[in-house]
Every structure is written in structure tokens, then in C-alpha cells.
Amino acid sequence: MTEGASVQPAASWWSAMSMETFWMRHGVSCVMKILQHFLCQTAMEIGEAICRGFTMGKSLDWPFECFKPNPVPIRFSFRGKNKNTDFNLLAAVYNVRGDFLRWEQLGLNNLQLCGETATRQAAAFSFGTAYQQSCDLSVAELMSTYSEPLFYDVFMDLGGEEERKLFPLPTLVNNLQYNGQFINQDACFLVDMLSGREKSTSSVPKVIRVATSIKIRFELVPDSKEGTVFPPLMSITYSDIPITDVSTQTVSATFAVQYEMNLNEFHIIMDIVLGVLGSLFLLNTLLRTIKWKRRFGSQIIDGETLMKFLLFAIGDLSNVFFFVTVGTAVYWLIFYKAQQTVTVVLPLPAQEERYKIFIGLAFAGKFLQELRLQVTVDLFFIDWERPRCSGGLWKEKPAPGTGEPKSDSPPVSIWRTYFVANEWNKIQTLRQISPTFQIIAVLFFLEVLGFSNYALSEPVSTAERSPQAFTPPYSMTLRYGLASILWLCLGLLQVIYFTLYERFVKNNIHQFVDLCSISNISVLLFSHPCFGYYIHGHSVHGHADTNMEEMSNNLKREAESMCGQRGLLPNTEVQTFQVSFTRYLRTQYERIQDLSNRRTGPLRSRDSSSANQFEQNTSVYNTMNHFLGSFIDHAYSEMDYIVKDKQLFETLLGVEPGEKSIFYNDEDFSFKDVLFYGNEATLLIFDTLFFCVVDLGAQSFVLAAVLTYVEQTIFSMIRQSLGRRNLINKTLVDNRFLI
């Protein structure tokens, strides 16, 4: 019924309800309310704590009721032939003298002070749509529009074939109490201009009272599969506005409709999942710590061991929080949007605080894990090339004071080592996906195709929305679930695509190994003091310093199997290994490395100090190259090694350093674990969390994408800079030749 409807139809409809029917329908309810009020007051006098426990335990805070009423006999459904999403609220309107004026249907500028189109106001009464409208109202317009207050007694229309049934909505005034208890009002008003007038009703009021906040809240019946709810509660907050300047004063007003459900059972399930997954991941943390301890070559549990265990635990628990939060958000996204009969509604912002804490813990843990990505590995490029004379042989004699061979022929070119070092420096920040494409693709789906609309707090969403339609607020849970699952899915698709691309077209990691073979250079890495990786690059042709024609002939002979294979062992092709080193080998390596006191800056001056430093580094480089090359060639019986396949228990628990080093065949190129390439899962999860956290804080996918790109660039630059510095210090390569 509209604002302009005549009183007669409303009065005749009212009179059509006999006194007996009205008493049976509403009188009994009133008597029950009085009895409940009396029982509650009596219980409070006998044992105030008991009844207060009942009252405070209800999520809707129904005043003067110790028990929740029966559910509303209406079944809500979002889809199907029984679709029912509309609910009707009627208001009996009275004037200040208590005279009944008319019946009005809510949604026609009666309880909503903010002026909006009829289409947008009607969205407030579509079940499941979180509605909130706020505005600033002019005091002058309020005084001219609401010169006399009107009182509204609100009912929920339950329908009925023969007779319409109405249910009175309890009204809670948030800032009105009596003896410390909230008062259950039967009627409400929007603007009161009379109470603030002095002397006469025609004078200008000194104070006006405005309903600045009106909220209607529905609660879903627990464990209901039929889409039933408890009777809604209407809560109102009044504000007294002193009149100072009518022409410029404004008042802020809000009208909202909210839906909630009891999430205690859901939280219990989440806690169980967290406990189970947390236990499994902590077991993984223990295994990783044992493996790290064995690779470190120490059996003592010291402070460093405990710190490493803590860092591993932080990384693993952050994975638990990430998977649980993403799984929960995707659950709400799918089941809330796809449900037919209403069984779940979205969590309220207050109910999402626990969820935000889990997201924050996941982000903090991944941030620490991102910072500790390894950039301090020990590595060295072993150059197998030997000088050649015109007859294809070389003559060597001991170098003075070193005992190392020195050739009479021209020295071996260092350019191959520089070339391999530059390629290693390049692949340090190589990833399995394209981060830039990832950001552009996510933005394309969210903003261009309109996928962001699926995160709105409404049961049925479409990618395209009419500008005239009401746009509900975004749900934090849905927004996080949509952004995270979209980011992860696009990242996974990229990984699959580049895996196929690298398998059939181009693989940068494999090409680096091939480059080592062509350059006649091997790479030995120590990721831990007694564990590392080895890339066997000893050329099957014996030399790599040659011209184009000979290089082409060598590759042709290799393609036609006219020479040996590239593997470390004869007649094998395995070139990459995981290595468990002996403590004695590590000691000898560190002894030679300590001889170097290389400066990282360019040699700008040509004084004697710089010359001595350069000669010292050159001597250490030659000594290290000779030592590691001899080790690979089994020249030291006290530091010999064996080659074998890795067993399952060795993979899980690691291997303690023994009397001999062990080279484990590794066809998976595990040395990529010291690069960005081998830590793609960690990087992808961190980028996902960073994007989502920024978006949840700023509510802008575009800003989140821009800051994520900045974050990726900064971390890549830091990793590149630290990796370059480590490469210079450990391989003794002149930094002036690194591009």
C-alpha cells in the first residue's frame, strides 16, 4: 500500500479482521510476551545470573525474552520452482495523538530517510541481499518534511490464503534502557520535531531527535534445510541534534538489512581441520629440521637448531592457515551462491574477525619465508679446459711456490667461465610463471569481465550489472575467496602451460646444463655445509676453446653418437646430482676459501695493494679449481665419493656425512631449489596473500595489482642483488664482467 492510499481501504481491511481473530492472533502473543517478561523478571530477582546467561547468549539480543520464538512459517529459496526471496513488511501508521491513519508497505520512503529510486529501495526487501544505505540529510529539509512525528508499528506479512497473518516485529532502541535493561518498543518514529520546542508547538525546536540508524536483522534457524528464519529484529538508534544553523546543518542516517547464522559449529569444524593439518605440517617441520641438521653436519641441538625449527614451523603453519582460509572462502563462495533452498548466509563483519586473524598469520608467515629464500650458497665453476699447443698436446711445469701445473702454452680463456657465470646470474630470479601476465590476467577477469560482482553480498550475481540496480557491499569472505582462487587457478594454468612449453620447446634450466657441457665447465654448489648439488659439465670432446667449425663438428659427432656420453659415469647421461659431502672435504674447501679476501668493488686504482689483491684472488681461484677438479676425478683417496640412487628414507630424513661423499643421481635438476624457479609454490602463495591482503585493506583490485607488481619487482631486485654479490664472492669472478 502506498503513501497516498486512502484510509478507507486500510480501515476496511483492518475491520475485516474480527476482534476474535485479532485477539487470537495478536492477543495471545501479547499475553505470552507479558508472561515471558514476568518470568524473566522473577528469574532475575531469584538468580539474575541465570537469566542473564540466557539473554546474553542470543545473537539477536532479544530484550525481555529468555527463549527465542518459533521460526517464521515462510520458506525462502533462491532458485527453482519454489523460489521465494521477497518478504513484506507492513507498518500501521499513527499520529502523535494516537489516531490510526493507514497501513503502509515498507520500502516506499517511509522508514528509509535516504532518498533512492524504487528499484534500489526494493532491494532491501529481497531476502539474502545485504542492504545498507547511508546519506547526509539537511536539517532544514527534515524540519519542513516532518513537522509532526508519525509512529510506525511494524509487522511481517506472513501471507495466508483465507486471512492474512501478521507478526509484530520487536523493536529495540539501542540507546534507551530502563533499570539497565533494554526496552522492547512496539512503535517507532523517524523524526521528532515536537519534543524540542519550547513554550508553544509553533516555535522553532531547540533540539530534534532523529532515527540515525535503523537495522533489520534476520537469523537463520540452525540446522535448517528448509530456508526458515527466526522473526526479524528491528533495532533503532536515536540521536539528539541541537539546532544551531538550520541552513547548513546535516544529519547522517543509515538504513540496513542484515542476515546472520550461528557459526559455532562451523568454527568447531575449522578448529578440527586446523588441528589435524597443523599436526601433519608440524611432523613435516620435524622431518625438515632433522634433514637440515644432518646436512649441516652437526648432532648437537643448540640455539641455531631451535631457531631453524621455529622458522620451518612458521612456514608450514602459514601454509595451514592459507589452505584453511582459502578453502573456507571457496566454500562460502560456492555454497552460498549456488544454493537453492537457503541453508547458509554470509558471515557478518563481526563474525569475520577470526577469519582476518588467520589470513594475517598466513601472510606474516609467508613474508618471513620469502625473506629467508637462500642467497648465501657456496658455489664454484670448475673449468676443465687445459691449454693446448699446436700439436694438440700441452706441456706443463710446476708454478713457482704453488706446486700447481703451469703451461708453456697461452693461458686458457676465462670468457667461458664469465659466460656461464652471467647465465647463472640470469636464472637466479627465473620463475615458472610470468608474474606480469599473472597480474594482467587477474585484473582482466575481475575488472573487465566483471568477475568481481560475484563477491557482492547477494545470493544471485551476474558479471554484468545494470547501473540502475542496487549494488550491495562486498563480502570480505567472498572477495578473498574469489581473488585467491582466481590467482591460484591462473598460476596453476601457467605452470601447466610452461611445463609443456619447456618439455617440447625450450627449458632454461636444461639449457644451462647444456651450456655447462659445451663450455667444459662444471658447477659445484653447497646449499648446506655438508650437502649440495653438482652439475657435471666436463666436455666429452675434451676441450671447448675452439673455432666455429670445430665446435660444429663436435656437436655433429655427439648427435651421431660418435663420442662418449655427457654423464659423470661412463656410458651414462646423468649430469646433475645431489651430493652429501664429508666433513673433511668441507674443511678443505673452507681452508682454501679463507685464503681469499676479495673486494667486491671495481679495481679503480693500480697501486700495489690492488695488484696484490688481484694476484691473491687469481691464486685462490686456480687452487680451488685444481682442488675441486681433482676431487671429481677421484684424485684424493681420503676424499673419494660414490654414485648411487637415493632411497626413500634418505629423501625423508637426509643422510649424515660419512667417510665418503655420496653423489645421488638427480634427473629432476634439484639444484633449482636454490633459485626462484624451485620455490615457485612459496612465491605464488605469497603473491596471492599479498594481493588479497592489500585488496581487503583498500577494497580495490587495481591498487592491489599495482602494489603486487611493485612487491614482485622489489623482491626480484633484492634477490638479484644479493645473489650477484654472493656469486662474485664465492666464485671469484670479476664483477666488472657480470652483465
TrEMBL record:
Q: Where are the transmembrane segments?
A: 266-288, 309-334, 436-457, 477-500
Q: Which Pfam families match?
A: Meckelin
Recorded GO CC terms = MKS complex
A GO biological-process term:
cilium assembly
Residues annotated as coiled-coil are none
In which organism is this protein found?
Takifugu bimaculatus
Q: What is this protein called?
A: Meckelin
Out of the domains of life, which is the source? Eukaryota
Q: Which UniProt keywords apply?
A: Membrane, Transmembrane, Transmembrane helix
